[in-house]
Amino acid sequence: MTATPAPRAACFLAILSLLWVTAPALATTHPGQVELVREVARDTGKSPQALNALLDGAKMQQSILDAISRPAEAKPWKDYRPIFLNDKRINDGIAFYREHRAMLEQIGRQYGVAPQYIVAIVGVETSYGGNTGKYKVLDALVTLGLYYPPRAKFFREQLKELLEMPANHLAGPIDTLTGSYAGAQGWGQFMPTSIRDFAVDADQDGRIDLKNSLPDIFASVANYFAKHGWVNGGPVAARAQPDVAARPIEAKDAKPQWPLEQLEAWGYAPLQSLSPAQPTSLQTLDGPNGPEYWFTFQNFYVITRYNRSPLYAMAVDQLAGAIAAGVAQADAAP
C-alpha cells in the first residue's frame, strides 16, 4: 500500500512536475536550439544561459527565406553582367584603387594576388563598402540554419561558428553585427568559417575587423585567394570560338579538367595566344548575342571558391580587367 503524500510534499512534487514539463518549451525559442547550445557550451565553455539569451533575441525572418530563393546568380549572363559591369561600378573601382593604391599593391605583392582582383571582390560584394548588408547576421544564420532545410547543414555550421568565435575576430558584439541575407559580413562578405580560416589581422591591432579596417579587409580577401591556389600572373578566362562541329561540353564545375589543346581538338579555338598545355575548363554563358564560350583556368576556379557561380567569377574577372585598364589609362594621361 502506497502512503499518501503530505499536503506540502504533494505541492512540491506538483511544482517539480510542472517545471519538468515546461522547461523544454522555455528553452526552445528556435527548433534545434537546445542541441546547438549544448554543443557550443561543450566546445567553448561558454555559458548556456548567455547563449540561450543570445539566441532568444534572434528572429526568424521570412524575408531572408524569400531572398535565398531568388539569388542574382539565377539570372542569365546577359542580365547578370550589367549589374556589375556598368560605368558607375567601373569608375568607382578605378577611383577606389587609386585612392588606396599603396596599400593594395603592397598587400598584392605580399600574397601574390593582383590588386585589381581584391578591388573587384569588394566592388561586386558591397560596392566598395557602400552596402555591407542590412540584416542582423544572427537573424540570418538562425533563419537559414534552423528554418531552411535545403541548406540547414551548411548554415547551422556557420551559426555554430559565429557563436563560438572569439570576440576579437568580429567587428562588434554578435547581436549587433549586420550583413547579407546569408549572414556574410564586412566589405568582402565573409561567412563565419571563412573568418576563422582566412581572415587576417593585417593592421596588427589585436583584432580582425572586416568592416572598419581596410588592411584587414584587403589582406583577408588576398589571403583567401592565395590559400585556395591563386596563380600569380596566371590567366583567369579567355574567349573561345567553336567551329561548326565542336563537341558539346558540359563541365560539372570550373575546376580545370583538360589541357587547352584537348579543347582545341574538340573544336574550340582560342582567340589569343595561350599555352597548349595550360589546364583549362569551358564555360558556356547566355550572352546578349547568343552563347558565349570561355576557356577558364585555375584562377577562375579560385574565384568560384569565393562564390561557386561561374557568373560571379566572370563578373569579378571582367570588373578587375576594366579597373586595371582604367587605372593604366589614368596613369598615362598627361
Automatic annotation (TrEMBL):
<dbReference type="InterPro" id="IPR031304">
    <property type="entry name" value="SLT_2"/>
</dbReference>
<feature type="domain" description="Transglycosylase SLT">
    <location>
        <begin position="35"/>
        <end position="320"/>
    </location>
</feature>
<keyword id="KW-0732">Signal</keyword>
<dbReference type="InterPro" id="IPR023346">
    <property type="entry name" value="Lysozyme-like_dom_sf"/>
</dbReference>
<feature type="signal peptide">
    <location>
        <begin position="1"/>
        <end position="27"/>
    </location>
</feature>
<dbReference type="InterPro" id="IPR043426">
    <property type="entry name" value="MltB-like"/>
</dbReference>
<protein>
    <submittedName>
        <fullName>Murein transglycosylase</fullName>
    </submittedName>
</protein>
<dbReference type="Pfam" id="PF13406">
    <property type="entry name" value="SLT_2"/>
</dbReference>
<dbReference type="InterPro" id="IPR011757">
    <property type="entry name" value="Lytic_transglycosylase_MltB"/>
</dbReference>
